[in-house]
């Protein structure tokens, strides 16, 4: 599957309908974004089981703001609708493939347990 441009309106549905979603936040004026685009496209073609989305931060300012994008390119990875990676800066193809493999290997039951424990800890702190 090649990369797919998504809008704010499509963002939630994209996460809802797919197990693993990578999102590249970019802008046309951004030199590093333009250098990263072919790398992102190549790795997307090698991983048809993963959705590789792109968000134009100029056209989708609301979504960029909601995602707290302060530097581009920024790459995010979601697994089962949970943000598991967010980092600004471009990576090379080998690094991106390693990241994709890492996201695929995450034990999501363990992640959900950790999130539940953090939430319980936060609730306890708020009660005190």
TrEMBL record:
| Residue stretches making up the Thioredoxin domain | 1-105
InterPro entries hit by this protein:
Thioredoxin (IPR005746), Thioredoxin-like_sf (IPR036249), Thioredoxin_CS (IPR017937), Thioredoxin_domain (IPR013766)
Kindly give the Gene3D superfamilies that the UniProt entry links to this protein.
Glutaredoxin (3.40.30.10)
What domain of life does the native source organism fall in?
Bacteria
- What keywords are annotated for this sequence in UniProt? Disulfide bond
What's the protein called, per UniProt? Thioredoxin
**Gene that produces this protein:** trxA
